[in-house]
Backbone:
């Protein structure tokens, strides 16, 4: 497993604010690959526990401070409930994930996201080009940077498979022709990421409409070597890993 490529791709780089450090990954650390697909959506299932995760008081205070910082940056982000990874099982070619409700803002705690679960849906056109978006300055991760596809927290009651489709619909107003799960991994800051990859129908890229989280977007060439300079090495590594 090319975990170094995945490790580099999931970091957000050095930034001065605590919110950006939440999603940043130290260059000398790699994520733990919990499970590797590919899985069809039908092979991905989720079971939600009824009990809510109770964080240490220090984490609650740090989450409160992170929300205040987001508000000061002009973010419309709201705090609520999201998913925490409790367990997972790989069986019969599929993956079953056990989740627990936790406070969304705990993912913003510097150094320990309490196993909060996020989903990333890397998105491609029918002919293999890559959808990239320039993230707004107020978002909680990848602020002011180019990112691939769509992503966000797994909401209460969702399967990560549902999140892939929802985030793509919310961020880009499109539904893919096909989509699959690629991997479940855990970043060093205890953020769990479910990575998927989606392909749009022929000519559907013309229907793409960015949401308010993006200031611009582009379709980068299928060949990663032909990407523009703003793509950056982390995104190139992620795409290379998904292309294998």
Residues:
């Amino acid at each position: 497993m090319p975990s170094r490529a995945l490790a580099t791709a999931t970091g957000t780089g050095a930034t001065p604010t605590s919110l950006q450090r939440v999603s940043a990954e130290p260059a000398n650390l790699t994520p733990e690959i919990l499970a590797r697909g590919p899985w069809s959506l039908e092979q991905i299932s989720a079971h939600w526990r009824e009990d809510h995760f109770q964080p240490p008081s220090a984490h609650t205070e740090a989450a409160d401070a992170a929300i205040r910082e987001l508000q000061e940056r002009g973010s419309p982000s709201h705090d609520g409930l999201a998913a925490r990874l409790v367990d997972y099982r790989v069986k019969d070619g599929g993956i079953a994930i056990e989740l627990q409700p936790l406070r969304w803002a705990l993912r913003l705690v510097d150094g320990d996201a309490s196993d909060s679960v996020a989903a990333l849906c890397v998105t491609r056109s029918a002919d293999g080009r890559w959808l990239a978006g320039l993230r707004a300055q107020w978002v909680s991760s990848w602020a002011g940077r180019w990112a691939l596809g769509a992503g966000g927290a797994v909401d209460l009651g969702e399967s990560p498979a549902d999140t892939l489709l929802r985030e793509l619909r919310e961020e880009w107003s499109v539904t893919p022709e096909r989509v699959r799960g690629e991997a479940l991994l855990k970043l060093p800051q205890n953020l769990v990421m479910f990575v998927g990859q989606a392909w749009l129908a022929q000519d559907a890229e013309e229907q793409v409409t960015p949401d308010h989280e993006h200031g611009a977007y582009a379709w980068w060439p299928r060949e990663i070597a032909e990407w523009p300079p703003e793509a950056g090495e982390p995104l190139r590594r992620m795409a290379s890993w998904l292309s294998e």
